[in-house]
Amino acid sequence: MILFCASEAGGARELIPVVREALFQKIPCRLLASSVTAPLFKAAELSAEVLMISSLEDATSLLNDTHPDTVILGTTGVISGERYLTAAARTCGIRSITLLDEWYNYALRFRDEQGAIGTYLPDVICVQDALSLKLGEEEGIPKSCMHITGSPALAELSKKADELRSHPPAVPEVLRNTTDRPSVLFLSEKLKAAYGESTGKKGTHGSFLGFHEDIVREELAHILTMIGAPVRVVEKLHPAESTKAPPACGENVEWHVLSGAAELVPLLWHSNRIVGMCSKTLLEAAILGRNPISYQPHALHPEKCTAVRLGLVPVCMNAAELKHALENPTRNEGGPVDLFCADPDASTHILALAKHKK
Length: 358
Description:
The chain has helices spanning 9-24, 38-43, 56-66, 81-92, 130-138, 152-166, 191-195, 213-227, 264-270, 281-287, 306-309, 319-326, 346-354; strands at 2-6, 29-33, 49-50, 70-73, 95-99, 124-127, 146-148, 183-187, 231-236, 253-258, 273-276, 292-295, 315-316. The chain has a 7-stranded parallel beta sheet with strand order 3-2-1-4-5-6-7, with helices on both faces. Strands 10-9-8-11-12-13 form a 6-stranded parallel beta sheet, with helices on both faces.
């Protein structure tokens, strides 16, 4: 039996195709979720249990009760259930596998309470490609435990991109009746909590980036107001957020806020322009053939955005650059982007690693 667990959205999206493949192979599974990821699993028509694992003792008790052969986990930026399960699995003699979903902050995902890498290091870390493996090594992750498997989530999305060109998704309700104005999708993130709100401040993931979601949304609202053309903005919140008041903006700007649980692909497909910061969703938009923009005003580390790091999405570093990019918001008709990491056999590769004996 395989025990799957993801408490954050990125990990959940990587696990979903693997769980599906495991069920297809008739492998017994148990899927654990958080309040953040449960809606994502439900949307994928997967049955998941919301279970809080807040200590090593909780994780050990769970493994002793369920006796899985392998645990397959997402990653988090803070010490939480996935790391406790990793440490407990080692104690119980159970194989542990972790799936990476980004191209940065590798060490952060495996550090213990003292900042060392060891206690929470799994038997296997599944990385997306050769670049991911190289970057992991540079951050101190042992090469011996890293295996290039591809990204299950990006593989699934790449396949869907081809299908959508023939059978587009339904237009989301928030984007209907927009014939009088183009649409801008703004992909929000919880960067203030992760990296701090000003110079000298820190968050759960590291030091201040030079910007955060509130700075960007206010600048975006101001820029669109200055442009003056009618526009509808759809702000898609992070999955951990449910509501937020719109920023101040001119009468030409309609600003709608969607909860983090809203389905992404239809929004990406039907929006005229897409603006994000560091979100992996910018990479997903590029795979779908959209034309996203990473806006990182005064950024200290623009490579924190995977799509920018991979050279697939342009980055605007100030308001003038973003204004120029948004002056003529038209629908992008480019083709899908093919990536090596979008390996159609990624889920199969991961499950093959799960079958190895501890």
